[in-house]
Design brief:
Elements: E1 14-21, H1 30-50, E2 54-61, E3 64-71, H2 74-87, E4 93-99, E5 102-107
Antiparallel strand pairs: 1-3, 1-4, 2-3, 4-5
Length: about 110
């Protein structure tokens, strides 16, 4: 007898992935990286207070910084992160909101 498969519950984890252009082609300078780290701390506290998800780290390289955040609702998570993301001076910058198989780009 086959085990029945439960229908998709729709509880896929969503993501907010922020991309910031840094100076040069490498990892950015020390001050740029420090600003990203400070912003991550602010966003970690904000997501914890709001209960909308978590910051899951960053990547630096190729003249870019990428910050990853995950939670059950990308829109609610972005709403909490948006003020801090927009406060960072690095441009061009954009965010990808992933909702299961759907993705939206928001320019900062």
């Amino acid at each position: 007898m086959d085990t029945p498969i439960a229908p998709d519950s729709g509880d896929e984890e969503h993501a907010v992935i922020a991309h910031f252009r840094l100076g040069g082609d490498g990892f950015g300078d020390v001050d740029q990286r420090e600003r990203i780290f400070e912003a991550e701390e602010v966003m970690e506290a904000a997501t914890a207070r709001a209960g909308v998800g978590e910051i899951d780290g960053n990547e630096f390289g190729g003249g870019e910084a990428v910050v990853y955040a995950y939670g059950p609702d990308a829109d609610a998570l972005f709403k909490v992160l948006e003020p801090t993301l927009r406060s960072l001076p690095f441009r061009p910058a954009h965010v990808r909101l992933r909702r299961g198989g759907n993705e939206t780009r928001v320019d900062l």
